[in-house]
Design a protein that fits this description.
21 helices; alpha/beta
């Protein structure tokens, strides 16, 4: 029996901005969501999904628009009601459309204000009859001719419906979707695509402001400073590069943020931060960079947590954290990954994993990527080879996501708000 997983993948508009997430789930040897098709007998899988969502929607799926495929069984269980109507798009496919009772339930949700999407829309009477009730049309570009696809997109737009191209996994399909004029796209190629590369000044402005406040405090909290730097890939990279430069002339390479802070000392750390501040005074974080900073933080947490279960690993948890953290640096810094990694002291096994996918570290890294991409077969294979119980992966993934969401909401607060809270905290201490 196959394990059960839940994954979320970004859906991006034409400007490469995330409009929501596709929630894909896999269980009982069946895949749901995306372009994978429904299960024919999904009762057991539906129980798993329902139970998971009951426990986790409050924690990790709030505040975003979630596109989720609902089978007849999930509709019968009233699963959509676990979500607020502003946070959910109910996706349906042919198995629901031809089921009178299931379709009746969908219509009730429409009356309540929920949005609806149709997976793999077709030029058929039963699909065309739905146009008044749906908000999104999802198209699989490989299933129809360009002329047919263009007709569907034109009709949809004339009725104020949005079109989403599914399964965009390569440049060719991406260009095809652009030519069709779809409103949004999803797929592994879309998830990894940046409009332009960011550069080394791409650290988060609000997080950097928090760092300046922390190191300027009368009694700086070293643990807090370490946390602030450790969630930002470019700050971590810059710090390690600085402390391992000839300026410090160290006998041994420094490989962790904590070591770097201790060796530099607060005086040097302040100088480094102010230098960064001056060099970046006129620059805002480039479009798309924040998404990759967040992705690096998620991968760092996930890789580190997977280390609690992986067998016979040649690296430590901090090494695994760095592996995930630095996995997007080639998008954030305008240089090849190999050149970037040559400038910082990472374990050779970590470098080999990031550059070639080699060794057990490479397997761990590939497992994290495969989970992001909902590559069900690869997830099972890699987890088994690493000795990681597959039944733990979904909870590990969503626990990491919850932590990332919590921290991210803190570090992305606008700078004035952080400053205000800092002043309020000082006033409270005086009282």
């Amino acid at each position: 029996m196959s394990s059960k997983y839940i994954v979320r993948q970004p859906i991006k508009d034409k400007d490469n901005k995330i409009i929501g997430y596709e929630i894909q789930y896999h269980g009982e040897n069946q895949a749901f969501g995306g372009d994978k098709g429904p299960a024919t007998n999904d009762f057991a899988a539906a129980d798993t999904i329902y139970n998971f969502l009951t426990q986790n929607t409050e924690k990790v799926l709030r505040g975003t628009l979630n596109f989720m495929t609902f089978t007849t069984t999930l509709l019968m269980k009233k699963t959509p009601r676990l979500f607020h109507k502003d946070e959910l798009v109910i996706q349906i496919d042919d198995s629901v459309i031809i089921h009178p009772l299931a379709m009746h339930i969908v219509q009730q949700y429409v009356k309540e204000g929920y949005k609806v999407a149709v997976n793999e829309f077709q030029f058929a009477p039963r699909y065309l009859a739905l146009l008044d009730s749906i908000d999104y049309i999802k198209l699989s570009l490989g299933s129809m001719s360009m002329m047919t696809l263009k007709n569907i997109v034109d009709i949809a737009h004339s009725m104020d419906k949005q079109c989403i191209a599914m399964g965009i996994d390569n440049e060719e399909l991406y260009q095809k979707a652009i030519k069709l004029g779809v409103d949004a796209m999803e797929g592994t190629y879309v998830a990894a695509k940046l409009t332009t590369q960011a550069h080394s000044s791409g650290y988060l402005q609000s997080n950097f402001f928090r760092l300046i406040m922390a190191i300027s405090a009368e009694e700086p909290d070293i643990t807090e400073i370490e946390k602030i730097i450790s969630v930002d890939a470019t700050l971590t990279y810059g710090l390690l590069k600085m402390v391992n430069s000839c300026y410090f002339a160290l006998r041994h390479e420094v490989t962790t943020v904590q070591q770097a802070i201790v060796i530099m000392g607060l005086s040097e750390l302040r100088q480094w931060a102010y230098l960064l501040s001056a060099s970046n005074a006129e620059n805002q974080i480039e479009e798309g960079a924040e998404e990759f900073l967040r992705m690096s933080f998620m991968r760092a947490n996930f890789c580190s947590n997977l280390m609690n279960y992986a067998k016979n690993m040649p690296i430590s948890k901090p090494d695994a954290y760095m592996m995930g953290m630095f996995s997007t640096l080639n998008y954030l810094i305008d240089a090849p990954m190999e050149d970037i990694l040559n400038q910082i002291p990472l374990r050779q096994e970590v470098k080999d994993a990031l550059l070639k996918g080699e060794g057990r570290c490479g397997m761990l890294y590939q497992l994290a990527l495969s989970y992001e991409q909902a590559d069900w077969g690869k997830i099972d294979k890699l987890a088994e080879e690493l000795g990681i119980p597959t039944n733990l992966l979904t909870s590990l993934y969503f626990n990491c996501m919850e932590e990332v969401n919590r921290v991210w909401s803190e570090i992305t607060k606008p700078a004035p708000q952080i400053a205000k809270e800092g002043e309020e905290g000082k006033q409270e201490e005086k009282k």
